[in-house]
Design goal:
Number of domains: 1
Strand content: under 5%
CATH architecture: Orthogonal Bundle
CATH topology: Arc Repressor Mutant, subunit A
Order of helices and strands: HHHHHH
Shape: globular
Structural class: mainly alpha
Radius of gyration: 13 Å
Helix content: over 70%
CATH superfamily: Winged helix-like DNA-binding domain superfamily/Winged helix DNA-binding domain
Largest sheet: none
Number of strands: 0
Number of helices: 6
Distance between the termini: 32 Å
CATH class: Mainly Alpha
Length: 74
């Protein structure tokens, strides 16, 4: 079952902008959505991925981390 944010189509853009280190306000401004929506979506991702903090999600989403994972998989 798709979550509310998947239906809105904001999960991927928020995840990408989060990986770039943007704040909730900066993400909201870029996507023309509310800060509350961004905050709730990020909180949902943290919960879904079983992280304790937003920082863990940012690290997980960071380009350096993705490069490390693709290197290991090769």
């Amino acid at each position: 079952m798709r979550c509310h944010w998947e239906k809105l189509g904001v999960l991927d853009p928020i995840y990408i902008l989060l990986s770039q280190g943007l704040t909730d306000r900066e993400i909201a401004n870029r996507l023309n959505i509310t800060e509350v929506t961004v905050h709730n979506c990020i909180s949902w991702m943290v919960h879904l991925l079983h992280f304790q903090t937003r920082a863990e999600l940012v690290f997980y989403a960071s380009p350096a981390q993705r490069a490390a994972w693709s290197f290991r998989a090769a």
